[in-house]
Amino acid sequence: MSTNDIDHLKHEAAARAVEYVQNGMKVGLGSGSTSEAFINLLGARVRGGLDIIGVPTSERTAQLARSLGIALGNLNDLAPLDLDVDGADESDHNLDLIKGGGGALLREKIVAASAKKMIVMIHGPKLVEKMGAFPLPIEVLEFGHAETARRISAVIKSLGYGDVPLVLRKKGDAVYKTDSNNVIYDAAFGPVISETAKLANALSCVPGVVEHGLYIGIATTLIVARPEGIEVIERS
């Protein structure tokens, strides 16, 4: 599938997601390329008279939304949100997700957890039987991060996954920093993650882990764009 084909599918998923936004809503605005397609379409509706207020999940998202005339507010003042709309790096058929490839997993999860509904936009290959082909991002405090990574590895091994490589994310030659000034380790499981809730809970208990990219039981609607059309999967 070419880059143009993927971009087209992202746009199709975003166009379906925009249909869920109604006048007067408080909307979480996700991060990443599919979310940016959604925000551009949402901006067009705002210019056409739609009255909503958004809560961005990253500084980049906030900048884009402002440039399009979308009003933004503070999560503390607006929660609970009516809707959160975001992309994902992987989803299984239970609507559990891996997110964080773009580095915004902490703020994305806070916003998603603060919304009554979470709509997730993906293109076909991201819907998988077992997650893990996309490396799982784990956001940790910079203080003692190498020691935190050792504890993460030990916990993962104790759950039967063996020696899963952990890679400290970099941007060029520098260590990548999130908007919250933390660092990220990417865990290369391969497509073998099972008992996702058990893994999520175990990672959350590691001292130094701020958040991880497993979203369990949060997404309510999955929009899957394929060349043959759109599939919408609702959480049962």
UniProtKB/TrEMBL annotation:
Binding site for substrate: 31-34, 86-89, 99-102, 126
Associated pathway: Carbohydrate degradation; pentose phosphate pathway; D-ribose 5-phosphate from D-ribulose 5-phosphate (non-oxidative stage): step 1/1
Keyword Lyase belongs to the record: no
Xref: Pfam families: Rib_5-P_isom_A
PANTHER family, alphabetized: RIBOSE-5-PHOSPHATE ISOMERASE 3, CHLOROPLASTIC-RELATED (PTHR43748:SF3)
Protein EC: 5.3.1.6
Biological source species: Rhizomicrobium electricum
Record's keyword terms, sorted: Isomerase
Family in the record: Belongs to the ribose 5-phosphate isomerase family.
Gene giving rise to this polypeptide: rpiA
InterPro entries reported for this sequence: NagB/RpiA_transferase-like, Ribose-5P_isomerase, Ribose5P_isomerase_typA_subgr, Ribose5P_isomerase_type_A
Active-site residue numbers: 108 (proton acceptor)
Name this protein carries in UniProt: Ribose-5-phosphate isomerase A
Recorded GO MF terms: isomerase activity
Summary of subunit composition and partner proteins: Homodimer.
Catalytic activity: aldehydo-D-ribose 5-phosphate = D-ribulose 5-phosphate
Task of the protein: Catalyzes the reversible conversion of ribose-5-phosphate to ribulose 5-phosphate.
EC class name: isomerase
Gene3D superfamilies, alphabetized: 3.30.70.260, 3.40.50.1360
